[in-house]
Amino acid sequence: MVLAGGSAGIVDLFTAHRYADMLKIVPIEQPLPFEVTLISRRDNPQSRAALQLKQLMKNKCWEIARQNEGLFHAA
Questions:
Q1: Total-model pTM
Q2: Are residues 35 and 28 in contact, defined by beta-carbon separation less than 8 angstroms?
Q3: Structure-derived torsion over alpha carbons of residues 55, 60, 61, 64, reported in degrees to the nearest 10
Q4: In this structure, how many other beta carbons lie within 10 angstroms of the beta carbon of residue 65?
Q5: What single-letter DSSP state applies at residue 52?
Q6: Backbone angles phi, psi at 46, to 5 degrees
Q7: How far is it, in rounded angstroms, from Cα 43 to Cα 16?
Q8: Which of 47, 49, 5, 48 is nearest to 23 (CA)?
Q9: Residue 8's pLDDT is what?
Q10: For residues 34 and 14, what is the distance between their CA atoms, to the nearest angstrom?
Q11: Cα 63 to Cα 57: distance, rounded to the nearest angstrom
Q12: C-alpha angle with apex 55: 32 to 70, nearest 5 degrees?
């Protein structure tokens, strides 16, 4: 989707690395109990919308993690 002209996307690390030579991989810096990666085209700077998406996704991931914290620590 990003390669087709979409601004940015969120994918797993495996998928992100598959396209690393064509896309700019921007890891989400805060530690999460799961892995999320934002990707964007390497040849285009991130738009304001992409940066806002990145922040929104960080916030939502943390919210989901807090709501489900017991699931991550269950045996």
A1: 0.44
A2: no
A3: 170
A4: 15
A5: H
A6: -70, 135
A7: 16
A8: 5
A9: 78
A10: 13
A11: 10
A12: 30
Are 26 and 9 in contact by the 8 Å Cβ rule? The answer is no
The beta strand positions in 1-75, using DSSP E, are 8-11, 23-27, 37-41
- Could you tell me what percentage of the chain is helix, strand and coil, using 3-state DSSP and rounding each to the nearest 5? 40, 20, 40
Please tell me whether residue 69 adopts helix, strand or coil conformation: helix
Radius of gyration over alpha carbons of the chain, in Å?
14
Measured distance CA(37)–CA(54) in Å, rounded:
9
Q: What is the pLDDT of residue 30?
A: 67
Query: If the chain, 75 residues long, is cut into consecutive pieces of 10 residues, what is the mean pLDDT of each piece?
Result: 78 76 76 72 85 85 73 48
